[in-house]
Amino acid sequence: MAKHTGISRRSFLAGSAVVAAGCATPGKKSSIVKTKTVSPNSKLNVAAIGSGGKGEADTNGCRDENIVALCDVDARRAGKTFERWPDAHRFNDFREMLDKMGNEIDAVTVSTPDHTHAVAAIAAIQMGIHVHVQKPLTHSIFEARVLRDAANKYNVKSQMGNQGHSHDGVRQLCEMIWSGVIGDVKECHIWTNRPVWPQGLHRPSKVDTVPDDLNWDAWLGPMPQRPFVSKHPETGRDCYHPFVWRGWWDFGCGALGDMACHIADPPNWALKLGYPTGVEVVNQEGQTGEMGPIKSSLKFHFPAREGMPACEVYWHDGGNLPPRPEGISENEKLGDGNNGSMFIGEKGVITAGEYGGNPRLHPDNVMADYTMPDETIPRIPGQDSYKDWIRACKGEGVACSNFEYSAPFTEWVLLGNLALRTGQSLEWDGDAMEVTNFPEANQFVKCEYRRGWDLTY
Questions:
Q1: How buried is residue 434: exposed, middle or buried, by Cβ count under 10 Å (0-12/13-18/19+)?
Q2: Which helix (H) or strand (E) holds 362?
Q3: Number of CB atoms found within 10 A of residue 239's CB
Q4: Domain segments of the chain as ranges
C-alpha cells in the first residue's frame, strides 16, 4: 500500500477546485462534485470508517444496505465486522478507501476516535457522499462549524450518532416542556457517571512496539506524532487505544464528549438553547495539561430565546450530582440514576433519562395524575436513527440530528472543555466563534493539525 502523508492528492485537488468555483460564483452549487443519489427502492452502497468497537454497531445499523467497504486502523478489533461482511473491501486508511472506491460509495459511517471525525467526514462530503458521524460530532468547535457548512454546500444528508434524538421519549419531553406544565424553565441540570476510563494522568515516557495489525500513523491522523504505548504505567490499563483516548485532549473530549451529546440533547431541544453567552467552572478535580479531570461541574449561561427566558444549564460528571429539589423524596429516582437531566420550572420539576427517555413530573404523585399532551412532533418509525438517515440519503427529507441541528449543539458542548482546560469563566460570542474575555482560550477553538492534514473542501 502506498504511504499517505495527508488527505489524498485527488481529494485535495477536487476540494480546491470547488472552493475556487464557489468563490467565482457565490451562492451557486458547484457542478464538479454531485451528491450521490439512490432510488428509495434501491440499496445504498455503504462504507464504514471505523469498523470495530462502536463501528461494529454502526455498520450493523446499515445491514439492510450494501456494505461495500470496511476501514479500520486496527484489523484485530475490526475482525468480527470483517468476518460478517467477507465480500466488503478492507482498508486500514480511509484516504486509500476513498481514493480507490469513492465513486462507488453512496454513504459512510464515521466511527473513529473524536480527533479524526472531521477529517474523515470532510473527505467523504467533498465527494458527494452522505455521512453519519458518531458523537461528539467533532473534536473542536471550529470543526463542527466546518462540517455543517460543508454538508450544506455539497447537499449531502448528514446525521450525528446521538441515537436518542430519534426516540419517542425526547419528543414527549419537549411536548411536556412546551405545554407549559412546569412554566418557564430558568435552571436545568445534566449529570453523568462518566468518566469510566482513567483521566487526570500524565503522558508516559515509555515507548512500545506498534502491533502488526495496527496502523498507528493513521490512528494519530491529524494530531502531533507521539510513540505508541500499550499500557499506562500508572494504571496498567490501555494508554490510548482502544478506549482511553477519550480522556486525552489530543484525541478525545472527555466526559462531555462522551455523554453530553446524549444527555444534553433533551435540554438542547426542549429549551431551544442555541449558543450560550458564557460558561464557568463550578469545580473540577485532577485536570492535567493533557487529560481531562476526574470529575467536574460547569454552569452555562444561555440568553432569552424564542419566547423562553434566560436560563442556567449545569453539567455534572464523575459522580457529582445536582441538588435534589425541595419536596422531592430521597426515594424518588431522578433520571436514570447515574445519568439524566432535570428541568426546574416555575411550577414544577421534570426529569428524563440518559437519552431523554421516561420523562416524568415530580413528585411521583403529580405524575400519577398527569395526562401526556397531544403529540405535536413527528415520531421516527421504529425509533431507528440509522434507518432515518438511510431514508434521507435516498431523497426522503432530512435525517434527525442532521448537522444543521447537531453542529451548533456540539459547539456549546465543547465550549465546556475550553473552560476546563483554562480553569477560567469564559464569555462566548457564538456567531464569531470566539472567547471574548480570555483570549488564551481561543487556541482550543481550532486544533493544530499535522502537516498534510486539513479541512479543505
A1: middle
A2: strand 360-362
A3: 21
A4: 9-164+389-405
Cell matching residue 173: 419531553
Half-sphere exposure of 373 (CA within 13 A, CB side): 19
Q: What is the pLDDT of residue 28?
A: 32
Contacts of 308 (CB under 8 A, 6+ apart): 184, 185, 271, 272
Residue given cell 467477507 in the structure block: 86
pTM above 0.90, yes or no: yes
Supply 257's cell numbers: 464528549
C-alpha cell at 412: 456549546
**What is the spatial distance between Cα 241 and Cα 77, in angstroms, rounded to a whole number?**
11
b/e sequence 14-44, b meaning 16+ C-beta within 10 Å: bbeebeeebeeeeeebbeebebbebeeeebb
* Residue 201 main-chain phi, psi, to 5 deg: -105, 170
What pLDDT is stored for residue 222 in this prediction? 97
275 with 412: CB under 8 angstroms? yes
The helix-helix angle for 117-125 and 94-101 (nearest 10°) equals 10
Q: How far apart are CA 160 and CA 147, in angstroms?
A: 11
- Are the CB atoms for 96 and 4 separated by under 8 Å? yes
How many residues belong to the chain? 457
State the Cα–Cα distance between residues 192 and 262, nearest whole angstrom. 10
How far apart are the C-alpha atoms of 152 and 140, rounded to whole Å?
A: 19
CA–CA separation, 296 and 411 (whole Å)? 19
In this predicted model, what pLDDT tens digit does every residue of 414-448 receive, in sequence order? 999 999 999 999 999 999 999 999 999 999 999 89
In what helix (H) or strand (E) does residue 427 lie, and over which residues does it extend? Answer: strand 426-429
Q: What is the per-residue pLDDT for 22?
A: 28
What are the pLDDT digits (tens) for 305-351? Answer: 999 999 999 999 999 999 999 999 999 999 999 999 999 999 999 99
Place 260 in a pLDDT band, splitting at 50, 70 and 90. very high
CA distances from 196 to 50, 112, 193, 331, 419 (A): 22, 19, 7, 26, 21
Find cell 483554562 and name the residue. Answer: 422
Q: In this structure, are residues 159 and 132 in contact, taking their beta carbons and an 8 Å threshold? A: yes
pLDDT in tens, 94-110: 999 999 999 999 999 99
Asked if pLDDT for residue 15 goes beyond 80, the answer is no
Q: Are strands 185-191 and 340-345 parallel, antiparallel or unpaired?
A: antiparallel
CB proximity list for 357: less than 8 A, separation 6 or greater = 164, 167, 169, 170, 336
For residue 7, what pLDDT band results from cuts at 50, 70 and 90? very low
Give the span between the Cα atoms of 423 and 309, in whole angstroms: 28
CA distance 193 to 321: 9
Q: Look at residue 78 and give its three-state secondary structure.
A: coil
- Overall fold of domain 9-164+389-405: Rossmann fold (3.40.50)
